[in-house]
Amino acid sequence: MKDFLTIIDCPVEFLKDLLRISTRLKRLYTFGGNDPCLAGQTLAMLFEKPSLRTRISFQVAMTDLGGHPIYVKPEDIGGIGKREPVKDIARILSRYVDGIMARTFEHSTVTELAQYASVPVINALTDWSHPCQAMADVLTIEEHFDDIKGINIAFIGDGNNVARSLAFACAKLGMKMIVATPAGYELDTETIDRANQVSAGCIRQTHDPKEAVADAHIIYTDTWVSMGQEAEKQKRREDFAAFQVNAELVKTAPDHAKIMHCLPAYRGFEITDEIAESPKSIMFDQAENRLHFQRALLKKLMSQQS
Fold first, then answer.
1. Into how many domains does the chain fold?
2. For the whole model, what pTM was predicted?
3. Active-site hit among 103, 164, 236, 295
4. Is 294 annotated as catalytic?
5. Is 236 in the active site?
6. Are residues 91 and 188 both part of a single domain?
7. Based on the domain organization, do 124 and 55 belong to the same domain?
8. Is 27 annotated in the active site?
9. What is the pLDDT of residues 243-261, one digit of tens each?
10. Residue 290 catalytic?
């Protein structure tokens, strides 16, 4: 595959290979080594939305592999698709760099970049999809449970881009997920149908968080208010009040259940500080694995080595 835009479009073997490479490169990194497979190559990193984890992990990953990352702020190019068309940006950058990473609002921005670019394009987040996060999450689950097949994820919160990418990952890689949301915030039926067409019955929804966590290996939550939804903050916090991941909810889950959050975490809202800091929490393992998965992704897409 030339690009990495959404998990549902990736062959299963491609995803499994990314996990294998992630594990191998992480082991190498742990013992002080790196694979300079991208020496002399350059990655343009386009940002409409700021991010601690996305920027630093991609920048470090590219540097570790011997390449050079270039951070491009919206004002550097007058806004993606504003001063000049996305298709022009894609073709111009293709003549300057060896890969493009984009973190945007509209998903159509990254799909158009990929359509017109002759170099690999990576979706580092859109309002519709967050595939790098979901695959780093799968890597984390694999590390804690050895085998991801049959893993049950309880996603508590908004049916957002992270929930969607996790649903697609579950469908492709043999896991199951229950999404627990307040009424009106469900994951869209098209996403659920697409996932269940790949793996029948792998995704379902409920409005009851306790039902969702009853058989969970993973209890996953995310912010109730994503970037661009600030005007809805108060209403969302009221609507999601009964969907907090706290000690009371966690007690209804199996003892082996782990807690995940893609961060940033707004403690006291979607998750309590007590649970975020508990031994069950593996959210910082997730954050670290963004680096290891993205190192593997860059190697897979931009290097001729296997």
1. 2
2. 0.96
3. 103
4. no
5. no
6. no
7. yes
8. no
9. 999 999 999 999 999 999 9
10. yes
